[in-house]
Write a structure and sequence with these properties.
The chain is mainly beta. Helices cover about 5% and strands about 45% of the residues.
């Protein structure tokens, strides 16, 4: 079992920045691909970003490209989501997810929430105008 705990959410003004963290335990962190998803009220869960195990290749949802950056620190068992240029439409609960599967295919795999076996409890991000 993998446990994931997110932190770093909060209230920020338009154009501001936040950094989310997700601490993992229960499995060697370097063997996990990690993703961030978000869900706004009344909307479906949306892919935000992912970072692959091993290669560290990153992927981003179209709505956050150029503004958000995902990174990982295997020594600290933590994945980060740096969010800059925040907009009101970024308001959502942000979830960290982990996938232990060794997958060598294309990027679409990492954008699908059903591919992730473990999920955190979520952290609220609210962007005020």
């Amino acid at each position: 079992q993998v446990q994931l705990v997110e932190s770093g959410g909060g209230l920020v003004q338009v154009g501001g920045s936040l950094r989310l963290s997700c601490a993992a335990s229960g499995r060697t962190f370097s063997t996990l691909s990690m993703g961030w998803f978000r869900q706004a009220p009344g909307k479906e869960r949306e892919f935000v970003a992912a970072i692959r195990r091993g290669s560290g290749i990153t992927y981003y949802g179209d709505s956050v490209k150029g503004r958000f950056t995902i990174s990982r620190d295997n020594a600290k068992n933590t994945v980060y989501l740096q969010m800059n240029g925040l907009k009101p439409e970024d308001t959502a609960v942000y979830y960290c997810a982990a996938d232990p599967t060794a997958y060598y295919g294309g990027s679409d795999y990492y954008t699908r929430d059903r591919e992730y076996d473990y999920w955190g409890q979520g952290t609220q991000v609210t962007v005020s105008s």
